[in-house]
Amino acid sequence: MIVKVCGMREPDNIRDVEALHPDMMGFICWEKSPRYVAAVPSYLPKCQRVCVFVNPSINYALQMADSFKADHLQLHGSETPDFCQELKQATGLKIIKAISIANSADIEKSKKYQGIADIMLFDTKCATVGGSGVKFDWSILDSYSGTTPFLLSGGIGPDDAESILSIKHPMFAGVDLNSGFESSPAVKDIPKLKKFITSIRYEQN
Prior knowledge:
Strand order of the largest sheet: 1-2-3-4-5-6-7-8
Radius of gyration: 16 Å
Order of helices and strands: EHEEHEHEHEEHEEEH
Strand content: 15-25%
Number of strands: 10
Number of helices: 6
Distance between the termini: 10 Å
Structural class: alpha/beta
């Protein structure tokens, strides 16, 4: 199971999270986020790096991808399939496309990105762009018929390990962890994160 820890910013916290061996760390390159990374941190992790955007320009995405030496670009806005394809070709990087979910009809929106996005990310639909700390009804995932793997996001917290492990969808690839494991925006609570990651990896095996 992929473990992505998103909303990272502080160098010491990045080091502490890295010691838990996540597969990916996400850096939010969107000014309106409380976890916005205004400058590249003085320490970057050795795991896969994900730059997270909301409706960026191609040039801005290219600039940030180069600055962070990113492996993936996550698009969390209303980016079209054509834009995703253009960005993928311009950078040569893998694309994670976020879809905001409130009901099974929202899952259908992912069909447009099949064959373009490398990973889908299903997050809770809310007034803001992610980071609500609220779960959607995970039974909606059963209606996903795509062949692109997906990460689950939106309100996952320390007590959700058992529920996560009960998801048996064949395209379920992992989790995206953020606000549910923070002591303050962009600062992860290491004991909570360690307990959760250990639980899902130990129980899974």
